[in-house]
Amino acid sequence: MQISDHLHFLKIPFQVPISPELQLERFVNLFLIYGEKSIVLVDSGVAGAEARICEYLAVTGRRPEEIRLLILTHSHPDHLGGAAAICRLTGCKVAAHPAERNWIEDTDRQAAERPVPGFSKLVAGPVRVDRLLADGERVLVDELVLEVLHTPGHSPGSLSLHLPGERVLICGDALPLPGDLPIFTDWAASVASLARLRGVPGVEVLLSSWDRPRAGAEVDSVLADGVAWLDRLKNLVGAATGQANATDPLALCRTLVAKLGLPPAAVNPLVAKSLAACL
Ligand SMILES: [Zn+2]
Predict the structure, then answer these.
(1) Ligand 1 mean position to 209 CA, how many Å?
(2) pLDDT value for 5
(3) Which of the four pLDDT bands, split at 50, 70 and 90, describes residue 145?
(4) Hey, which residues does 207 pair with through a beta bridge?
(5) What is the distance in A from the centroid of ligand 1 to the CA of 198?
(6) What is the number of alpha carbons within 13 Å of residue 127 lying toward its C-beta?
(7) Does the pTM of the predicted model rise above 0.85?
């Protein structure tokens, strides 16, 4: 889907195998920034997403070799999974924040330290980070300018990208969706990042990995909803920690998942860790 003059949006559905009987249906959004001669891909989806990306390029009259840079908003499987194949197909360079480098370049380490179910199916392999991106840097896509914002909280090195010429802000997983699985490593950093994103001037369209594109007044309201959701989680966790199961993160997770009306698959170590990060 074309969002603005130079920006395209691609939704990649996938499944996370929680157990032999239980598949968690998820999706991730990728973004293609079309310059005159070159293309920047923002996130690579899960393993296999390269077929959808190439198909989309063909439909829009562009070629895979035009992708010169893959920017990973962070290292998680649904953003990194297709990177190895994309790099092979296009010869593109990879850019990411320094805090995500280890898990991008060593996927076995990521799988051991953050064991997402089905990791080896979701991630085709590691890639080398060619360019480290820090807050405030600018990336040029031919005539287009991308401003890099470091927006940690969901992960330590999460990046957002502002395209002032397109009036678009890409925020990756920095925006939590109320009612969806809470996944973050640092509650306070998440809240601060959302405040920062709300302050970016002139944004007409907000693109996140987990939501449909938001435009106009919705841009600020979904960011405000994200903060309200984080506040609600913190309050619930605070209220529950006085209770008997407070020392067992998974038991606490089970209680809160029921209270929040989240699906049973939300009772897992990643969500338990996020809820513990509210404290
Ligand atoms: Zn993520």
Answers:
(1) 9
(2) 92
(3) very high
(4) 170
(5) 20
(6) 34
(7) yes
